Amino acid sequence: MSQRLLYPSVADIFASQVVKDSFQKAWDDSFPTPETCREQGGFIYADGEGFRTFHISWAPPGAMESQSRREIDPTKSLSINLTTPILPDSASANAVLVATFHTHPLSPDAGGNEHPSNADMDNAYYRRMPGFVVSRSVLYYYNRVPGDEESDHRRRKTDNPNGYPRWAEGEFVEPQGAFLAGKIKWRPTSASNQRD
Question: Which of 43, 59, 113, 194 is 20 to 30 A away from residue 3, measured at CA?
Fold first, then answer.
């Protein structure tokens, strides 16, 4: 029988109404005007019994882009900076960062990509932290491989409880398929300024 991990799984996190409401808010805020969109997102913390009480903090929004952009210019790709976790005011001092999330609001018809990018999945590995992408059609997650108790063990021993787990000196290795991406059958309701 496998040991239950200390920190919540992707399914545990998604089961929270606080988290679902935050995904919807991020989606709504991704369309500030009828002409523009930008990535929105933030950090999911957990505390309480079994680390199953969730709290959200927000990253600064990404740069705005036209919703009708059709050219793919890698120097202008939508992005958001999730490198500096922020402990929410509502969380206790022993809260732990358990996931990140952000939106991919640009329509595929306008050159957008709904899936987690390679950078998103690499970040899940480097940060030892699952992430979610809120898209038009489905909720994506990207994560370390399931059953990776060693990652959970490292998380418990971290000296950075309110942020990303630190790599021990000499421990870092390049990603070698140590993540997984999947879908959850959930999608946000259309935002008032969203173009389809």
Answer: 43
Supply φ then ψ for residue 151, to 5 degrees: -65, -40
- Is-contact 43 86, C-beta < 8 A? yes
Q: Find all residues with CB under 8 Å of 189, minimum gap 6, and list them.
A: 24, 27
d(CA 66, CA 38): 9
Is 193 contained in some domain?
no
CATH code for the domain of 149: 3.40.140
Distance between CA atoms of residues 166 and 149, nearest Å: 16
Query: Structural domain tally of the chain?
Result: 1
What does pLDDT average to over the chain?
A: 82
Taking only the tens place, the pLDDT of each residue in 93-129 is 888 898 999 999 999 888 888 989 888 888 887 777 8
Q: Taking the CA of residue 46 as centre, how many other CA atoms within 13 Å lie in the half-sphere pointing to its CB?
A: 20
